[in-house]
Structures are given as structure tokens and as C-alpha cells.
Amino acid sequence: MTSKKEESKSKEGDAPSLTEEVAPHIAIQGYEGCFHQQAAQYYFGKHVTVECCATFKEVIAAAKDKSRTDGCIMAIENSIAGSILPNYNLLQSSGLKIVGEIYMQIHQNLLVNHGVELEDIKEVHSHTMALQQCYEFLDQYKWKLVETEDTALSAKHIAQYKSKHIAAIASTLAAEIYDLKVLAPKIQTLKKNYTRFLVLKRPEDVKEEQIGNKASINFKTIHKEGALARVLGVIAIHKVNLSKLQSFPIPGSDFKYQFHADMEFDNIKTFHRVIEKITPLTEGIKIYGIYKKGIWK
Ligand SMILES: O=C(O)C(=O)C[C@]1(C(=O)O)C=C[C@@H](O)C=C1
């Protein structure tokens, strides 16, 4: 049986020559018209093919499976709704490497079937992160908010069932694909609304250390005063920019914490020096990847 990955590679007919670049097949959370698909196209180009998964857990499983995909794209944080904490745990247990990141401007829209007006709406369906990005708009109404797997899938469902009382929050691309009306455009709480996505690959497919100016690491510190401050001091002394520090509980540890840190630097040697110096101050330090800082799109 041909896997979806092989199918996608042979779509154009003949097997690609050795010199020909093969469009990657990438696992995403969501379906046709979702923001992950747009992020995949932005990063890999229009020819990328996607393996649509219902949950982030499935995305990671698909990314780890060589017969299914070449890796995945996973949202990790949003500038309005904040960090997607469960994804930090998934990243940690996955063993996958970060090879890139994407900051993508997200416009959320209220979509309905043609003929439906604001006063007809009783429920609004969307991905939890999308709903959270639109609370200020949604708070004006008494609609029931329903969390779904995906923005685009919500749009597809209201079109499919010709719903008269349900709206979806999704992209204008989803509106086009499923022939829905944009009843209210750009309803996210702040005009500027960015989601950061990580590009992950299996470690064996990351041939050599990436050339980059950003890195993500994970570490634990002992439960003693000043332990984290000492680590941060080393980072500061080396003039490395700590662009994100996220603490999250170690599962099953009665609230002991681990830290995820993103760092930006001009010289890779400086980053390695920081790692050398903080290793004795931390436990279980892990480098998730060295990659090129994403451009805000
Ligand atoms: O539902 C989608 O369209 C997704 O791609 C998921 C997702 C997310 O996980 O944050 C992606 C970007 C937006 O922030 C809203 C939802």
C-alpha cells in the first residue's frame, strides 16, 4: 500500500530525479483552509502537501513516523491568547528537533451561511485559541461558544449542515473554500494578532547543526533560592537575548517546574558558551534546536 507521503510524492507522475527537490509532506493540526495549512505554505512553499490531523498529539505521532510525513508544524503561542501549554509537553516528550519558526499574522472572521444575520446567531464554533483571540467581540453577545478541533472544520460544518443559527470563526480562505459569508471581518481583540508556529523534524533528518541565530532549550533547576536567577545571569552576561521563558510543571512531580527558554544571538559560539556555563547550574538540559529567527509575516 502506498502511504500518503509516497502518494504525495508521485502525484505529478514519475518519481523525482535525485537533483529534483521533492515537496515535503508535513503534518498539521486542522483541515483545508486552517491557519496551520497557511503556515505550512508560507514556510515550505505552495507545493507542500499536508497530513491533516485532528489533535496536536496526532500531529506529533505523524511527524515521528517516517512512512507518513517529513515533519510537522505546531502552533506554540499567540500574541493575544498566550502560550499553548500542552504543546510544550508534547514538544518535550516528542524527541523532535525544532528547525524553524513562523510568526504569522492571524485575522479572525465571523463566518455564516448566506442569508444569516447577527440576530439569527445562537452559537459560535471554533478552535479554542481562535475563540480566545476574539473575546472582546464575542462578549458583546450572548452566544454559546463551542470549542471545536479546528477553525476551518467549523466553517466546513456550518456550510455542510446549512446552519442558520451557528457561526464559525475562521480565515477568509475558509470562507472562500466553503462558500460562506464574512459577517464580521477581523474580529480579533487586537489588530495585531500573531501566532508563532514551530517547524519540527525527526533528529535523524536534521543532518548537521543548523546555522541559526535562535535556539530553544529545556532545563530544570534545583528547588533552591537563586537557582533560576543564576542561569539567567549567565545568559545576560553573554549578551544573549532571552526572547521567551516559559515555566511549566513536570508531569506527576507535585509541582516541580521545568523551563523552556528561547534565546537569540549573533554568534553561535556565544550560544554554545552559554550552554557550557549553565549546564552545571541546571538538570537535564536539552537543546531542542538551533534555527533561523522567524520573520514576522
Ligand atoms: O484552527 C486552526 O485553523 C489552526 O490552525 C489552529 C490555531 C492554533 O492552534 O492556535 C492556529 C492559529 C490560530 O491561532 C488559531 C488556531
TrEMBL record:
Keywords: Amino-acid biosynthesis, Aromatic amino acid biosynthesis, Lyase, Phenylalanine biosynthesis. Residues 25-202 form the Prephenate dehydratase domain. Pfam families: PDT. Residues 216-292 form the ACT domain. CDD domains: ACT_CM-PDT (cd04905), PBP2_Ct-PDT_like (cd13631). InterPro entries: ACT-like_dom_sf, ACT_dom, Chor_mutase/pphenate_deHydtase, Preph_deHydtase. Transmembrane segments: none annotated. Pathway: Amino-acid biosynthesis; L-phenylalanine biosynthesis; phenylpyruvate from prephenate: step 1/1. SUPFAM superfamilies: ACT-like (SSF55021), Periplasmic binding protein-like II (SSF53850). Its EC number is 4.2.1.51. It catalyses: prephenate + H(+) = 3-phenylpyruvate + CO2 + H2O. This is prephenate dehydratase. It comes from Niabella digestorum.
